[in-house]
Amino acid sequence: MGLSASGLVSGLDINNLVTQLVEAERAPKQGRITKQLNDIETDISAYGRLKDALDKMKDVMSKFRDDHTFAARSSASDDSEAVSVSAEPDAMTGSYSVDVQQLAQSQKLVSSAFTEGMDFGAGSMTLQLGSESLSITIGDTENSLSDIANLINKHESNPGIAAAVIKDDDGERLILGSEKTGASNTISLSVDSSVSGELNNLAYVPGSVSNLNEVQQAKDARIVVDGLATITSSNNTFSDAIPGVKIEAKELSAGSPVNISVSEDKAAVKKVMEEFVDSYNAFFQITQSVAKYDPESQTGGALVGDSLIRSMTGQLRTVFSSPIEGAPESMKTLSEFGVTTTREGRLEIDGDIMDKHLDQNFSKLGEFFDGNNGFAKALEKTIDRFTSYTGSIKNRENSLNDQKDRIQDDQAALDMRMQALEERTRRQFSAMESAMGQMQYQMSAMMSMMPAMGNQ
């Protein structure tokens, strides 16, 4: 507030009068500007919702541009507690029998009983597990069976040998166990030849007489596929028996082979189609809400009468109904694949038709969706015409933002005019107050002179 008129002379609430006069001048112009800005923001929001819905539709359909969608495999086992199965994309499809004849296991050695706390003497020993080894040095002290077990367990180069000491009625026993399964992961223990004393009693060479006895043999897992192919594995997982298929043996078959199967993952394709239908119906719902007109209330959505809405829905329906070059004769269009349009304009899936084509034409779905003239490519191209940086929606948004900038300039100009009007009005009231004050002063002076003039 640059100027102020007190109203002390006139008795008027000048500040309130100025505010009311300025607001009366501002109100109709401000109302038009506010409505225009609100309408533009509503339109921009509506176009944004349409673009987001189209982008979602495109993202869903892009899954059909991914080779893994049609290469995906589903797998099943008649007895998953005995044999589990999983399949990688492009795995060989088919049904197989798996007879689990042997499960993989690790080796375990147990020593003879030694006197509890016995001193085994100083020296060195080397333990080997398969092709890996570790060497430990036992000192003059801390050379009991428990000390030796601790040296093995804590060694940084331990290849996977677990040592423990148990006590029974006969004394202490050393247990050595492999943490790795498989026939090749056997344990051997050699002692420095210069060592004399009890340490030599811990040496173990497979197949020789020793104070260490094998209580559990290292074994490979073994399965027979389709009664013909015998395959072994150091663990219970078989990754090469069937190309792209991983089989895990969990229990012995006991003469009753487990049937497993690998097939195209038809459910994955159907799921993507359901997502696509949902995404289109969400887009369609938005078009209805932003373009709908209610004749009773004479109100409508933000984009009532917008030709772009008709253009978008029309071009999308053209893609839906256009034949796909290279597709099977019985599956040339989206509706023939089992995606049909309702009377209201939404999409829905006919599960029976779709399942039939998934069973009969799965190998040709790649061409239907991702061929040179495939449905996914055609849809993507159509959507891009609306959502790309140079697309129709972006052009509309740019035009609206230009209008918004011009209206915001009008707002700034209105604010400046109203500020000037307020200052001008305050000056006028200030001048009026000053003039009234001067008149009151003159009147007071004249009134004070009148008695003196009457006495002359």
Automatic annotation (TrEMBL):
Where in the numbering of this chain does the Flagellar hook-associated protein 2 N-terminal domain appear? 10-107
Q: Where in the cell is it found?
A: Secreted; Bacterial flagellum
- First-listed, main subcellular location of the protein, grouped into a coarse class: secreted
- Name used for this protein in its record: Flagellar hook-associated protein 2
Domain of life, per the record? Bacteria
Task: Tell me which PANTHER family the record gives.
Answer: FLAGELLAR CAP/ASSEMBLY PROTEIN FLID, FLAGELLAR HOOK-ASSOCIATED PROTEIN 2
Q: Which UniProt keywords apply?
A: Bacterial flagellum, Cell projection, Cilium, Coiled coil, Flagellum, Secreted
Which positions fall inside the Flagellar hook-associated protein 2 C-terminal domain?
Answer: 218-440
Is Amino-acid biosynthesis found in the keyword set?
no
Q: Which GO terms describe its cellular component?
A: bacterial-type flagellum filament cap; bacterial-type flagellum hook; extracellular region
Transmembrane parts of this sequence: none
Q: What family does the Swiss-Prot or TrEMBL record give for this protein?
A: Belongs to the FliD family.
> What InterPro entries has UniProt attached to this entry?
FliD, FliD_C, FliD_N
> What the protein does?
Required for morphogenesis and for the elongation of the flagellar filament by facilitating polymerization of the flagellin monomers at the tip of growing filament. Forms a capping structure, which prevents flagellin subunits (transported through the central channel of the flagellum) from leaking out without polymerization at the distal end.
Quaternary structure annotation from Swiss-Prot or TrEMBL: Homopentamer.
Q: Cite a single GO BP annotation.
A: cell adhesion
